[in-house]
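Tutorial handout. Part one gives the primary structure; part two gives the three-dimensional structure as tokens.
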Amino acid sequence: MIPARATGVWSRSRAVSSLVVLVAFVLSMAALGLAQARTAPESFADLAEKLLPSVVNISTTQTVEGRSGPQIPQLPPGSPFEEFFKEFFDRNRPQQSQRKATSLGSGFIIDAAGFVVTNNHVIEGADEITVVMHDNTRLEAKLVGRDPKTDLAVLQVKPEGELTAVPFGESDTARVGDWVVAIGNPFGLGGTVTAGIISARGRDINSGPYDDFLQTDASINRGNSGGPMFNLEGEVIGINTAIFSPSGGSVGIGFAIPASTAQPVINQLIKHGEVRRGWLGVHIQAVTEEIAESLGLDEAAGALVASVIDDGPAADAKIEPGDVILKFDGKKVPQMRKLPRIVAETEVGKPVPVEIWRNNKMITLSVTVGRLRDEDKTKVASKGGSSRESEKALRSLGLTLSPITDSLRTRFKLAEDAKGVVVTSVAETSPSGEKGVRPGDLIVEVSQEEVTSPTDVIDKVDQARAAGRKSVLFLLETQAGLRFVALRIDGK
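Part two.
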């Protein structure tokens, strides 16, 4: 039998020993965590050596028509010298001349078959396109297809030997702060490697309808356009396409097309020579906090349908103005500008479920995706009502309203078939003025119900206030088309 004192000493010794082991284990795990967290390599040399052969320079030549020599001076009509100068310059008119204009850009090889990706603006209008390999081999390139909306183009070359292609990576999982490497042909200097981090995601720089750029502080300059942005695994997660620079040089704000946006476009260009985008047939706007509250949504998310184009896929699926699209084909629509990209990337002719918020409840409709064509952008929809009432003021919102009259139709250049309630004046500092409501706008709906008179508008606002709403939803017909506006009604 072991004495109690001895037993206690043995227990304490074992506890101390276990504690030492535990501390050592924790320290070793902490050291391992620090090693894993340190993602920046001591050098980018190995990565650059591996990737440089896959990046190419793009050289284009374009024939530009020009005319040299003096021009006919501007003379007053009927001047006595007019005929003299005209005859002189007709006899001595210089011949039409042509000159070759060249430009430089970047690209990268994505397939051993010789497919090369670059920006559309690098090759736009080019008569000849030459791809210059890393070893200075020059290959004539054929244009496979291009897409101005995303500023992407695919070329193809016939290599004499084996090409080094690079894979695409998951740009959607790239995080702000991750290291990236850019390789390109700045100022025509040839293969140049720069490094930085992802500074921001989802940037909209108003360059096209599908803006969703990655922002980086890696040095990008003129000539880098079309070059790849790599992660540290050597995968392309972006295509460098633009910079923000008052001086024209790099100031640490560059933009790249994410791989998730580029890949579907590139695949279609290779397969079809063009991009066949999905089309829903709606005009949409953002869901603000006020609009969300007025519609009973828990958060400001989704895309609010402002109008539905006649005979379009949405009209066939019974989607209505005032609906909020929250999911399309199983993909969430966190904000309005995401929906066009989601729809565009959906296969044409595919029936998809659309989850919609309507009348304070969720419903699911099925829509067959159409194909987007240029003429679809010009189609519009219209709505309205009628009234014979006199002008009335809605002071809480800063509005003065009136039914449509012949004089107002002339004053505000309203269409003959225009219907609704006319806004005749707006107080600049009122909720309406702050939201951009203007005289001449037509109020078509209030709280998603048609209005045909100023009294209808006032009644709907009073009903919303009585129900405890902080804002009320208006559908306006403006010079720019239909749009929803949520106006605060807290005041009396």
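Part three, for discussion. The chain has eleven helices and 28 strands. The two ends are 90 Å apart (CA to CA).
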